[in-house]
Structure formats: C-alpha cells, structure tokens
Write a structure and sequence with these properties.
The complex is a heterodimer of chains A (112) and B (111). Chain A has strands at 5-7, 10-14, 19-24, 29-37, 43-50, 55-58, 61-66, 71-76, 85-93, 100-102, 106-111. With 112 residues, chain A is an all-beta fold. Chain A is globular, with a radius of gyration of 13 Å. In chain B, strand 7 (65-71) and strand 8 form a beta hairpin. Chain B is 0% helix and 56% strand. Chain B is mostly beta strands and 111 residues long. In chain B, strands 2, 4, 5, 6, 9, 10 and 11 form a 7-stranded mixed sheet that branches. In chain B, strands 1-3-8-7 form a 4-stranded antiparallel sheet, with no helix packed on it. The model of chain B has no long low-confidence stretch (mean pLDDT 95). Classes of the chains: A mainly beta (112), B mainly beta (111). Chains A and B meet through strand 4, strand 5 and strand 10 of A and strand 5 and strand 10 of B.
Chain lengths: 112, 111
C-alpha cells in the first residue's frame, strides 16, 4: 500500500527557479526520506528527517516535516537542468525499523 | 565503493522461462532489499533480508518468486515460471540503517 503520496505528480520550471514538492502520509512514522531517480537509474538518497525534527538542510535542498499534518515538503533552490529527475518521499512506519514505503513520485523538469 | 551492483541490466525472456536476477550489496551493509517498480504500482518492497536472513517476504507476489542470500555479498531473486505481468524494473538496495543505496536495476521484459 502507498504510504507517501507526492504532489504535484509533475512539475516543470525554468532553470534558476525554486521547486517545491510535497508529500503526505497516513500513519505515524519514525523518519521520512527523500530520494531522486534519474531516468533509467536507481534511486539516490537525498535527505532523511526524523519524526522529532522539523526542518533540515543539505546544500540547495530544504526539507520540512509537519507530523501534526502528516506532511513533508522538499524545496530545491536555484534549480539546474541537472536536477531534472523524479523525486520520491519514503516513510518508515512507526512500528517498523526497516520498512520503507515509497510514494509514486514527482517528475521534475528543469528547462534550461 | 562500487555501490550496489545488479546483473543483468536488461533481461528479455519468454513466458514460462526461469529468470534469475543477481545483486551484490555494498560491503559492510547488513540489510538487503528487493523492490519492483512499475508505472501502475510504483515501487513495491518484495523482500527484506537482515544479516542474510529473510525477515519479511510479505511483498513477494506468489510462489513463483523466490529470493536467497547465501552470504553477505550476494543475493538472487528468481522467478519460475515467468509471466508477462512480471515485466518491471527490479531493484536491489542495501543499507546499514537509515538510507538505502540502490543498484541501477534490472529491466525485465517477459513476452
């Protein structure tokens, strides 16, 4: 079953603009992770935020987590054409320490 | 660090044939996962190993699917007999807690 659901399904922006993707989930979580997938490749881990954290930064990435709303957002600032990829959120449910459940992803296209 | 290595990258086979997918996890990782990705269902967890022991195989679709991890550096996912609905990209991932490291997948086409 899908735990995380990303929104929007697809996003197209110009290079230099910011991109925001959202993720909603249903049950309590231990942590939430964001991954990127380039076409024809495996997923690459971007950032992990624990359930007791509210915000985390990594380079041009900013992730927020609102456990009261069961939602997270991924912000990519000053986007580049190389950021074009699918982005997935994944949650580890509260009763598990390993079971990552992925959403269906947001396809981000950054136009040069 | 070579990352997670999967083979083959592409597999085309006829319905009814046996298919074996292979995975070499990152050295030192104690968890290994097999996922399947399709447009319809997205990423589905098939099976999870911890310290070479299968912990959760509830995602394995049916008895035609089997997975083994004979040692810490090798795992296989076997489909016998294969069916057209098994066509998908199969990913292996490993971890040592926290983030998963994925291989580049095996694209399986069953005709």
């Amino acid at each position: 079953s899908q735990q995380g659901e990303e929104d929007p399904q697809a996003l197209s922006i110009q290079e230099g603009e910011n991109a925001t993707m959202n993720c909603s989930y249903k049950t309590s979580i231990n942590n939430l992770q964001w991954y990127r997938q380039n076409s024809g490749r495996g997923l690459v881990h971007l950032i992990l935020i624990r359930s007791n954290e509210r915000e985390k930064h990594s380079g041009r990435l900013r992730v927020t987590l609102d456990t009261s709303k069961k939602s997270s957002s991924l912000l990519i600032t000053a986007s580049r054409a190389a950021d074009t990829a699918s982005y997935f959120c994944a949650t580890v449910e509260g009763g598990s320490n390993y079971k990552l459940t992925f959403g269906k992803g947001t396809l981000l296209t950054v136009n040069p | 660090d070579a990352g997670v290595i999967q083979s083959p990258r592409h597999e085309v086979t006829e319905m009814g044939q046996e298919v074996t997918l292979r995975c070499k996890p990152i050295s030192g990782h104690n968890s290994l996962f097999w996922y399947r990705q399709t447009m319809m269902r997205g990423l589905e967890l098939l099976i999870y190993f911890n310290n070479n022991v299968p912990i959760d195989d509830s995602g394995m679709p049916e008895d035609r699917f089997s997975a083994k991890m004979p040692n810490a550096s090798f795992s296989t996912l076997k489909i016998q007999p294969s069916e057209p609905r098994d066509s998908a990209v199969y990913f292996c991932a490993s971890s040592f807690g926290g983030a998963l490291h994925f291989g580049n997948g095996t694209r399986l086409t069953v005709t």
